[in-house]
Amino acid sequence: MMGPKFRLRGLSTRISFPGEEIQSAPYHQHLRLNANPRPRWFYDPHCLDALIYLDDLNNDTGPVCVVPESHKWVDREPSFRHFDSLENEIVFRVPAGSAFLMHGNVWYRACPTVAARRRMLILSYTPCWLRRTPHGTRPENPLTAYIADDADEQLRELIGTSGYS
């Protein structure tokens, strides 16, 4: 899908707690790219996201909803802060330890966390030429810093400290 050269774009974490402030996520994409009009010879960068759930996804923790084939839509994007169901969405309730793999352009949302916490890890794999993420700020002591010094060339390329620049 991404060719022979890809890298781990990043590891991020999310924790949602039940409480007065409802913690849910509106429909969104992780690698939104909608060029309209599309340039000639344009190549969509692909991204494979692994959402790893550390708690059961159920009605208490908030299931995840996905719109199938939405990663192919180049003429629209999710409405800002759209929390409601969409036509054709699929609701996923999975046991703790499950990994949900999806294209980075897929529209998805998290339902409200109402009675138990929801913890997840997100691993994103992208082409090696897609170097920076516009989301968040780099931590002072990133996890990859501990392995980068002793890593071989392949591992350094995977974590984005070597290879194509």
Provide a descriptive summary of the structure in words.
With 165 residues, the chain is mainly β. It has a single domain (6-132), classed as Jelly Rolls, CATH 2.60.120.620. It contains 2 helices and 8 strands; from the N terminus they run ββββββββαα. The strands form 2 sheets. A 4-stranded antiparallel β-sheet has the order 1-8-3-6, with no helix packed on it. A 4-stranded antiparallel β-sheet has the order 2-7-4-5, with no helix packed on it. The longest helix has 6 residues, at 153-158. The chain is globular. The model has no long low-confidence stretch (mean pLDDT 80).
What descriptors fit this protein?
165 residues; 4-stranded antiparallel β-sheet; 8 strands; 6% helix; globular
